[in-house]
Write a sequence for this structure.
């Protein structure tokens, strides 16, 4: 390594760094159908495919134990991984769990995390099949790998969107981010005055979205029943804007998204206003909703029409169109991804 050359990781960001690290990655095993670049890797397994996805959760970066209960943390660590398997239109079957902790944690504390892990396994019908355990110098680190299966003809890559496809999201967006804002606010009040008890009443939906998210297994099952195979799909972990850009980049297309169509729960909407935030900005850039963003052919529209689980928020256009966010009054501007990263940075600074 040349000492004079030093590129700050910050200058690339997470996605830029992954690109630098993997752009020359070539695979040699014919069974590796899809390596880096989607929500999960896709491996040929004869009459079906195996899906593999991994995530890393670091204390102080991804979670704050001053308000995250250990059981919820275990549950969420599993769920966020399962979400990446569903985002391929497949079903998770097994997980491995690796964990490192400092001596700040007792056996009982780690057991509490595992209660959440086992509950997620039960709810999503997956088996815990292994992992690794280590000491850490500081704090808690959890890594989960999920292994899933899909029928070959059903896999939904990020790269399959075509011009005129409809863009659909499940559920509603921005709730997890507002849940985080509430928890952070109560934390800072508590730090300033420990005698004041947290006031989180009436915000159950938002707190649940942040602390105990669910992966949309039900949506994948519903799409199967409705006989809809998404032409492309991604899960919304970093925010709608960022994921829309990933999907369009990988599909080599542009898009038009209608601001007023973005689904926002009334409680998310109200709390955003309370915090002097624009609810649409929250829904576009707040992370961790773990909803699914996907595209369907126009000919499949009748199959999802009127279903309360789905909202059509726009359509795919040619790449030259760019990715446009269209306001109610018809004005439009190019969508940019502030994403989760940017939120974290602005929070820290
Ligand atoms: P997601 O948000 O769906 O978990 P990421 O943004 O974390 O996806 O990752 C994007 C893609 O890059 C995935 O295919 C992932 O497997 C791959 N990836 C991320 N980090 C690395 C790494 N350090 N080495 C190789 N591949 C990576
Ligand atoms: Mg994903």
């Amino acid at each position: 390594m040349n000492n004079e050359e030093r590129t700050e990781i910050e200058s690339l960001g997470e996605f830029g760094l992954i690109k630098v690290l993997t752009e020359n990655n070539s695979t040699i095993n014919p069974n590796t159908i899809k390596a880096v670049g989607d929500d999960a890797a896709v491996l040929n397994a004869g009459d079906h495919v195996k899906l593999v996805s991994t995530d890393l959760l670091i204390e102080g970066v991804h979670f704050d134990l001053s308000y995250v209960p250990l059981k919820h943390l275990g549950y969420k660590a599993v769920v966020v991984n399962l979400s990446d398997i569903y985002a391929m239109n497949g079903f998770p079957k097994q997980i491995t769990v690796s964990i490192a902790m400092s001596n700040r944690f007792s056996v009982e504390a780690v057991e509490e995390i595992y209660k959440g892990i086992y509950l997620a396994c039960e709810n999503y019908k997956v088996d815990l099949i292994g992992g690794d355990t280590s000491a850490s110098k500081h704090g808690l680190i959890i890594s989960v790998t999920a292994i899933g299966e899909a029928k070959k003809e059903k896999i939904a890559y990020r790269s399959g969107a075509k011009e005129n496809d409809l863009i659909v999201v499940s559920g509603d967006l921005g709730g997890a981010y507002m849940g985080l804002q509430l928890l952070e606010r109560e934390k800072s009040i508590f730090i300033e005055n420990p005698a004041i008890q947290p006031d989180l009443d009436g915000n159950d939906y938002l707190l649940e979205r942040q602390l105990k998210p669910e992966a949309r297994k039900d949506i994948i099952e519903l799409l199967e029943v409705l006989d809809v195979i998404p032409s492309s799909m991604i899960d919304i972990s970093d925010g709608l804007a960022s994921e829309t850009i990933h999907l369009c980049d990988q599909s080599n297309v542009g898009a038009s998204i209608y601001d007023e169509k973005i689904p926002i729960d009334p409680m998310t909407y109200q709390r955003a206003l309370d915090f002097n935030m624009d609810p649409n900005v929250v829904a576009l850039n707040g992370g961790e909703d773990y909803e699914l963003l996907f595209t369907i052919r126009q000919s499949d529209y009748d199959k999802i029409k009127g279903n309360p689980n789905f909202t059509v928020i726009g359509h795919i256009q040619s790449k030259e169109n760019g990715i446009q966010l269209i306001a109610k009054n018809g004005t439009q501007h190019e969508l940019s991804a502030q994403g989760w990263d940017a939120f974290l940075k602005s929070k820290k600074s």
In short: The chain has two domains: 9-151, 166-334.
